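Pipeline run #58 for the internal structure catalog. This entry was flagged by the ingest filter as a single-chain record with no existing model, so it goes straight to prediction. Upstream metadata was stripped on purpose; only the residue string is passed forward. Reviewer on rotation: M.T. Logging verbosity set to normal.
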Amino acid sequence: MNCVWLSKPPDLWPLHGRIKIALSDIIFTDVDGKTYIHKRGYPTDGATIPNILTSVWDPYDRQIIRSVLQHDIQYALHDFDINFMQTRRMVDLRFYR
């Protein structure tokens, strides 16, 4: 089972430099069937792509921004929540499945 998105891609508001914030919640069910709600206002710097590709691929593309935000949020949980049960590698592997 793949991730199922239960919300539309959020609009983004430019904050500072490359940082933008989501203007709506992101709701999805993960591969294990658990539903998550990521609240609006979460900051992101977009997808990490090589600079040479930014002229042809937007790091804030609406088709990928939900996945980008999900990835950023799970990294933040790993960094700041001692009880978060996933390593960064596990987060990356879930993102690329």
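catalog note: The chain has two helices and six strands.
catalog note: The mean pLDDT is 82.
status: ready for reviewer M.T.
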